[in-house]
Here is the input.
Amino acid sequence: MTKENTKSNSKESLNESLGKNRMLILHNDEINSFDFVIETLVKVCKHDEIQAEQCAFITHYKGKCDVKKGSFNLLKPMKDELINKGLSVTIED
Here is the structure.
């Protein structure tokens, strides 16, 4: 394999991983109130009240919940904003 082919394959792998559907995971904490988490999910993730409430309860009882699915490029700004608001979130495959 030539150096040029290796570069091309690396770019393709990066593009595939960026476009691949991933999950934004909210992790439970003992700091934020249910109301704050619900309000934040509505604002940042564009959930309706019921969906945000369900995610908050699942997170509380199960320890984590996937709150949004999409590409890395879609989820990264949401992750950053949720972290800035004090929530614990990760992006997972």
Q: What stands out?
A: The two ends are 29 Å apart (CA to CA).
